[in-house]
Design a protein that fits this description.
The complex is a heterodimer of chains A (about 290) and B (about 270). Chain A is mostly helical. Chain A contains 13 helices and no strands. In chain A, helix 2 packs antiparallel against helix 12 and helix 11 packs across helix 12. Helices cover about 30% and strands about 25% of the residues of chain B. In chain B, helix 5 links the parallel strand 6 and strand 7. Chain B is globular and about 60 Å long. Classes of the chains: A mainly alpha (about 290), B alpha/beta (about 270). The interface between A and B is medium-sized, with 24 and 28 residues.
């Protein structure tokens, strides 16, 4: 039975939330959005998007291996993503131009995708199939899973709050930060681990390939709207939460997967912000 | 090693630096005392930046000693402002100039800055620093979008954020046009004089900063000479430093031109 959409949005939400799986989906989506946005904001600032994406992809073999070994997808996601972050931390220092070690990171990504397929093949009888691991699913999120997501997200956000200011210093101006006594290398490792935990959390909702819908798009859009660090972080969180809510709402009535709606809505927000900035720029130029 | 009872702010004794297996310089002595404006000069590749980084403890010495504010380098962050050599901020960096200056004030503190007295004090400090360097007109724009000279002023404000007793600048005039070189040099000279900040500046051209200099350290093949500009920037001294004929010429408008100094990359390992 397809649920019917009414123009009374509050009533629609009530109807959705009467279903435990939808309520859990909204809760889990909100948790990962609140975590993904600030971590993603720093990731975009530090130009570590490729590493972030690769950590998300590493979650795919992690989840598949977790299910195959019987320890559960969540443990697999977190374990593999953290291991991936440690591998990146062991790579030689950043490239001379300050960019990422794209060659090594890309190699890890290819290996991750390939081994993910192996684990899927080894474990016969994935219910949701590979597609849910890669492109996300909001069905079947349990209350226990929401609790785990929330506890891990709260811990990660607490760590981020403690390191936020020196991390900003190290991200904007590593040499000067180091001379001022900021432990830039240790902060780099802490941030990679935060990124891994975030990718593992978000991946459970959006799927490994679409983690970017929440990790990159809201912060990138926020950077179009404001240049203040504090405001940028706040706007990112609001955008990410709104994206998740609208996507879940639409996905409930539509035959298309959640990941599609997440990315489409986040992308639409980015295009709107960009267009708005162009219009504002033209006006300022005319005035 | 004290001179007249005044401890030098920074001191390098009989120092040797080896970077990547190559001896950059050896037997270098240099001191910086309060109120001095010192230039580290020399041809490209002679290790001027290395000397500045050695003072900061960012490059370990192969032999010799460094003291910074009377302590081992690396333990004296608070009293030292540092401006590294750079090619400018990425044009897409969407962080405002005032945010960059603010990082110099309290960027090394843990935790998130919360509204309150401390935050207001820091914001007021940023405002006064921005005014000091004359950057009020563009400090609220993304730093990637302002010109090289404007970025340099904001970075000088950042380096001054902790009221350092010693300011170390690596090629701050590099990649600026001549009017901007003169303006930044004048700003640094004014800050050194009015704020009693000892200043060490790495430069490959002495002319923009010549009016403000109290001493120069001239790095040459393997070693260094230091003294007043009038003592060091002479044909005789530099010829002695290089062991080959070097001439210092003075143009009609008072600019100095060094002719005949060998390129360091060939001479350094001799």
């Amino acid at each position: 039975m397809t649920p019917s959409f009414s123009l009374n949005l509050i009533a629609d939400l009530r109807e959705m939330w009467a279903l435990p799986f939808m309520l859990n989906a909204f809760r889990a989506g909100t948790v990962v959005a609140v975590l993904a946005a600030p971590v993603g904001w720093f990731m975009v600032l530090r130009r570590q998007s490729f590493a972030g994406h690769t950590l998300a992809v590493v979650g795919f073999p992690g989840a598949a291996a977790g299910v195959w070994l019987g320890v559960g997808a969540t443990a697999g996601y977190v374990g593999f993503c953290l291991a991936g972050a440690l591998v990146f931390a062991l790579l030689p220092r950043r490239a001379p131009d300050g960019g990422e070690r794209t060659g090594a990171i890309g190699t890890v990504q290819a290996l991750a995708l390939a081994s993910g397929m192996v684990f899927v093949a080894l474990y016969h009888g994935f219910l949701a199939g590979t597609s849910a691991l890669l492109f996300g699913s909001f069905l079947g999120i349990t209350a226990a899973q929401v609790r785990t997501l929330a506890v891990v997200a709260a811990a990660a956000l607490a760590v981020l709050a403690v390191v936020a200011r020196p991390l900003l210093y190290a991200s904007v101006d590593a040499d000067v930060a180091r001379a001022a006594g900021v432990p830039t290398r240790a902060l780099g490792l802490v941030f990679l681990l935060l990124l891994a935990v975030t990718a593992a959390e978000v991946g459970q909702i959006t799927g490994a390939l679409l983690v970017f819908a929440l990790l990159v798009l809201p912060p990138a859009t926020a950077r179009l709207l404001t240049v203040r660090p504090g405001r940028g972080l706040l706007v990112s969180v609001v955008l990410a939460v709104v994206t998740v809510w609208v996507a879940l709402f639409v996905a409930y009535y539509s035959p298309y997967p959640l990941g599609f709606w997440l990315t489409t809505i986040a992308f639409a927000g980015h295009v709107l912000a960009y267009a708005g900035r162009l219009v504002a720029g033209t006006r300022a130029a005319v005035a | 090693m004290t001179t007249g009872g005044v401890r030098p702010l920074a001191e390098v004794r009989d120092a040797t630096a080896v970077v990547g297996g190559r001896t950059v310089w050896t037997g270098v002595d240099a001191t910086v005392s309060a109120g001095e404006f010192v230039a580290i000069l020399g041809p490209n590749g002679v290790g001027k930046s290395t000397l500045l980084k050695a003072l900061l403890g960012l490059v370990p010495l192969a032999s010799g000693t460094v003291r910074l504010l009377g302590r081992a380098p690396g333990r004296a962050h608070r009293g030292v402002g540092y401006l590294p050599q750079r090619r400018g901020f990425d044009a897409t960096l969407r962080v405002r100039g005032v945010d960059v200056v603010r990082l110099g004030v309290d960027g090394d503190r843990w935790g998130v800055p919360l509204p309150g007295r401390r935050s207001r004090t820091a914001a007021a400090r940023v405002r006064s620093l921005v005014e000091l360097v004359g950057a009020a007109g563009y400090a609220h724009r993304p730093i990637g979008e302002v010109s090289g000279g404007e970025q340099q002023r904001l970075l000088i404000a950042q380096a001054l954020a902790r009221e350092p007793r010693l300011l170390l600048l690596d090629e701050p005039l590099d990649s600026l046009d001549l009017p901007n070189q003169a303006a930044i040099a004048a700003l640094l000279g004014r800050i050194a004089a009015t704020r009693n900040v000892a200043t060490v500046i790495v430069a490959h051209d002495v002319n923009p900063i010549l009016p403000y200099l109290s001493r120069v350290v001239y790095l040459g093949r393997g070693g260094a000479v230091s003294g007043t500009p009038a003592q060091v920037l002479t044909s005789a001294t530099l010829t002695g430093l290089y062991g080959t004929p070097v001439e210092v010429l003075s143009t009609s408008d008072g600019r100095l031109v060094v002719v005949g100094q060998p390129a360091a990359r060939h001479a350094g390992v001799a």
